[in-house]
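Hi R.,

Here's the chain you asked about this morning:
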Amino acid sequence: MNTKLARVPRALLIATATAALAAALAACSTSSNSTSTGHTHATAPKAKAAKAASAPKPTSALAGKWSGNYSGSYNGTFKLSWHQSGSHLHGTITISNPRSTLPINGTVNGTAITFGTVGSMAITYTGSVSGNSMSGTYKVATANGSTGGPWSASKG
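And the predicted structure, written out as tokens:
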């Protein structure tokens, strides 16, 4: 048997296996986390770093005491006492009308803030933060639907 002919299938097999391995590696190194076959592949570290860099960073100076006012369906003042862990907020809010102190939880994502209470009334606040001030709108859930208006607060 000719030894050159016996090597051709082996060389062809190695070339085919190498091409298949290269194709599999190329598929795994794309920014997609899955292929059409449903297999999950790890995302390249550079892609993760780029995603993390583009995500809004939470404002970290929200912990402490805030004073504010609200108008619209209800008018009055409020005091917030925040504790912050990353983008999560928790603490208490004291509302002047109707007079009550309630636990409160919220989140901050970049400059966007959302927080709310659950008590005799469910109150949700949405808005934005800039330095030592924040403002937005609130909604009060009532038996007849919801009502609300603007709010604003400053730290200190």
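Residues 90 and 105 are 4 Å apart (CA to CA).

Let me know if you need anything else.
M.
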